[in-house]
Amino acid sequence: MLDQPQRSRGRPAQNADHSVDEDVLLGVAFATFAERGYEGTTLRDLSKRLGVSHNLLNVRFGRKEDLWVRAVDWRMAQASPFVESVFEERADAESRLRHLVERFCLWATLNADIVALTNVEGCRSTWRLDHIVDRFVLPFQHRLDDLLDAVRRTRPVNHISTPALMALLVQGVGYYFSAVPMQQRLGAGSEVDQDHATEQAGRMAAFLLAGLLPPVQP
User: Fold this and answer.
1) Which of 103, 132, 135, 136 has the fewest C-beta atoms under 10 angstroms from its C-beta?
2) Are residues 35 and 142 in the same domain?
3) Where do the HTH tetR-type domain residues begin and end (predicted)?
């Protein structure tokens, strides 16, 4: 029996390229962009993380810009329905608003990678920020505006702009659960661990709702 040729050390087997699921590729890509930022991420580094050839990413996704868009769209498609489905609920406007804030605070405990990416990209004016805002943030904001208007027609709502409310949810509650080492150093303790995060998210939602919806006078 003939000896099989030895492949070069450090190079992944070519058949490994075909065995990598696209969801795995996009998941690792998104996590890396969220952790290192766009400029700090290279296709070569990603290929090493995945154990595939550098050429695989070029063939499947093209340029780094194209991979970033694919990874962001893929990740948001996973995460967005958890909150956005509230807009379609068969309930009165106030109930939907309360449920939306509660869902968003819970969402923040589960999606620290998205919060990290938006924190990085939200600080600079780039084509990537344009993509995030145009594709995801503005459509959500428009639906939130409509929901708040519907609530205002039935009861008082304390004035706060939707950009400010969304910042409290994402960069406020979201940052709290994504920057766990920071919170632990400040004494948050078990509030931010996985066993207690849901309970703490409920407290934060109740706090925000108390400020947003004042008691209705009899």
Assistant:
1) 135
2) no
3) 19-79
